[in-house]
Design brief:
Elements lengths: L1 H12 L5 E3 L5 E7 L3 H14 L3 E7 L2 H14 L6 E3 L3 H9 L3 E2 L21 E12 L23 E3 L6 H14 L1 H9 L3 E2 L3 H10 L4 E5 H9 L5 E3 L5 E10 L5 H12 L1 H9 L20 H7 L5 H6 L1 H12 L3
Parallel strand pairs: 2-3, 2-4, 7-8, 7-9
Antiparallel strand pairs: 1-3, 4-11, 5-11, 6-9, 6-10, 6-11
Length: 331
């Protein structure tokens, strides 16, 4: 019955969206990740080259869909992944509370920056995702410098924020901004005609096309589109939205040594240089972010970051999403 349930759940969520990278030979490691293909593909190749005694396979999908897959596999009696690496911090608190994560403090952590105050080795930040204001220079001639600048006439009726009910990153961002500025911030945005979009990528696409003139935007999504010729610019107000991307090992993995080696590599200088080359912040201060991305340093980002109480944020999720949605829908 459990196997039937697993099959039905996987069919329901449509696992054609998953990108799978075949393994190569030796002890086989399976990583579930929401990282984009160009990033996880480079990490895969470099990890295998550095650790020729191990194989590595990965499945890449949205974090929400991966969590559905994990829940179905757990019900069937066996989680097929050894490692999970996504940007949805609340998911890791949930997995930890369910006793599903193996505690591991890599020797590489001594060279990293960790913004989690309750760190216990259950999951470790491996990247610092940032969100700023993406704008289209064709329509906005003066770059916004503060979050309050989004209430100016230049952004009237054409500022977008992804739906926090559909995007975990959008939810964390909305919760951070509410903590920093209160609900009045969103009420003022709505009064200036701000719109609620769908996914985080969609609002950036709409900004590039001119359907919007600005949006709350994820760094690597925006920088990837800029590198491909999109008419976009990304700026960061003084109060920064910084969302770590944790990596964790599933408890009970039969490939514990390979999983630890993967975490070590991800946190190493070599692994973090690959991350920096993809247009997002590393967690190491000895890794230089390419100037073309116009990103702050990791130290500066964490210094300016809006502080987060993740357990409280998780507890308030339903209420926060409803309040935001009601404001944006004019209720």
């Amino acid at each position: 019955m459990k196997k039937l349930t697993l099959c039905l759940v996987l069919l329901a969520v449509g696992f054609s969206f998953i990108t799978t990278r075949p393994a190569s030979g030796g002890e086989k490691l399976m990583v579930y990740t929401s990282m984009k293909e160009s990033l996880i593909g480079k990490i895969h190749d470099a990890f295998i080259k550095k650790n020729p005694g191990f194989e590595m396979d990965y499945q890449s999908a949205g974090a929400g869909k991966l969590m559905v897959k994990i829940a179905a596999e757990r019900e069937s009696g066996k989680i097929l992944a050894d490692v999970i690496w996504t940007s949805e911090v609340p998911d890791f608190y949930q997995l930890r509370s369910q006793g599903m994560l193996e505690k591991y403090i890599s020797p590489e952590t001594k060279g990293t920056m960790n913004p989690l105050p309750d760190y216990d080795g259950s999951f470790t930040p491996a990247r610092l995702g940032t969100l700023g204001i993406a704008y289209n220079p064709r329509f906005v001639k003066e770059a916004p410098e503060t979050w309050q600048d989004l209430m100016k006439p230049a952004f009237k009726g054409a500022m977008g924020i992804a739906n926090p009910g559909l995007s975990g990153t959008a939810y964390v961002s909305v919760a951070m901004l509410e903590k920093a500025f209160g609900w009045e911030f969103f009420q003022n945005l709505k009064a200036n005609g701000a719109k609620m979009g769908k996914g985080s990528g969609q609002v950036v696409d709409d900004t590039a096309s001119g359907d919007l003139v600005a949006s709350l935007a994820v760094d690597f999504i925006t920088n990837d589109k800029i590198s491909k010729g999109a008419t976009l610019a990304l700026v960061y107000p003084p109060e920064m939205l910084v969302v770590p991307s944790p990596v964790a090992i599933f408890k009970g993995t039969t490939h514990l040594e390979a999983a630890k080696k993967f975490v070590d590599f991800l946190l190493s200088k070599q692994g973090q240089e690959i991350i920096a080359e993809e247009g997002t912040l590393p967690v190491r201060s000895d890794v230089v972010v390419p100037a073309r991305f116009n990103l702050p340093t990791p130290e500066d980002a964490l210094k300016r970051a809006i502080k987060v109480d993740y357990p409280q944020m998780i507890a308030a999720k339903e209420e926060t999403i409803k309040k935001f949605t009601d404001i944006m829908q004019g209720k």
